[in-house]
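Let's study a protein:

===
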Amino acid sequence: MTCLVDLMRPRIGFAALRLLETAGCRVVVPDAQTCCGQPGYNAGEFDSARALALKLADEFADCEYVVVPSGSCAGMIRVHYPTLFAHDAIHRERVAQLAARTYELTDFLVRFANVTALPGRFEGTLTYHDACSGLRELGIQRQPRALLAKLPGAKLVEMPDATTCCGFGGTFSNKYGEISSAMAGRKCAAIGQTGADAVVAGDLGCLLNIEGRLRRLGDDNTKVLHVAEVLAGEPE
């Protein structure tokens, strides 16, 4: 469960849980789990990021896999944790082991779960936005599309420049608001060109940025959904 999911849209976490349990996994969510340290790391607060990384490593020490419904948080653990501890002989190996068994949700489902059927259903057209961290740090592109192709009723329509940034970029959208707004506007225009009923992505930060811009532009109809929500559908 990522910080944004926990605070802004908990149903994504429950959707991820449903997908994993449907795939036969036993899921554990540590009660004391907090942030992975990504915001501090991005702001140059490396000491606080290390402290949170070690806390997370302890909390998930007994888990065979760590599965994250966010490319940016999974990328933080898989790509940036080893960098943070590259010169720490005491903790380096423990952190490297955590990084090696951490996966973004759709990547895990495609690699290990052998998903043949999904609990969700979507009647209509979808377009997919490739979030930057998942795409560029973890190679998340084929995996969500492969799963969406198994979704009953759904038709995927690719938007122009699907891999172009939406303008969120964590603190980037706060530091460079005008640039971020222009980038989000271009992303929304690309979404509009598809005529899709919904835009789907794997990072809630991107989704919040896109949805906010769509609504300010007067689009109250296009649904903005996390890929887990679409694949899992509504609980029975």
